[in-house]
Amino acid sequence: MKIFTLTYCPTPDQLYGNLLALKTLRTGFPTAEINIIDNCSCPQALQQFKLLSDQHGYNLIEAARAVPHDEFISRVIGFSQEPCTIVDPDIIFWEDCESLLTPGIPGVLMRGRLIPALAREAGRHAICAPLIHHSFMHAICAPRIHPSFMVIPDPQRLHQCLLTALGAVTNPWRGKEIMRHGAAVAYDTGARIYEALHHQFLPFSAGEMDRYDHLFFGTHLSSVISGGYYGAGVRGAIVAPHAQAYAGNYSALKGIWRQQQERFNRHALQL
Fold this sequence. Notes:
By secondary structure, the protein is α/β, with parallel strands linked by helices. The protein has 9 helices and 12 strands. The longest helix is centred in the C-terminal third of the chain and has 15 residues, at 232-246.
């Protein structure tokens, strides 16, 4: 089994979010091969990534050019020949997750956290949940397995099923906006995949979600906040756990997925 994490830290002030996974990946995957691909981070961050990789036995690979997240996912799945997992650097692990990679459930192509379809709230920039990409601020958001932590038991089978379901689409992982019944529906990273193959995806249970947490926007909070995309209430929900992560108070992050889920559930809808 192989783990793939794409780090990205253009400025030192964003380092704290990238370190969550690098400090805890061995908690989540004590025996797996862990590959850290650095996406042209600043020298200060790269130095930290090298130290942590040496300390924990990760393979650190420096990308020759910056690679978009969706392209990274597409490449990993397209070239992997054995069970793999893609983990964002702003994931923090509390327990062993290697059992989630065991290919023992017939027909399952992917596992991960299911984000339901989400309705926008009334009012300018008052989106319902602190995870929707700001380019989709005025759209209903389609359901998906969130790409921050995706378990793929058989990458080549998933790749072939995508070709069968979607044809030779240029990078089906890439987000796009589609008009449906007069409303804009945002297909963020991986949403088109979920729409095509959701009957072969198995979401994590609550007990499995308790094994880790995800700090949304952990690698690029400043760009999200400075853009003015979110209302005050959502900004507060986003910033509070970041302050804890920045201070190194990781225990305060345990269980934040439940708070996030409460917000999602309040605004979930059926497409």
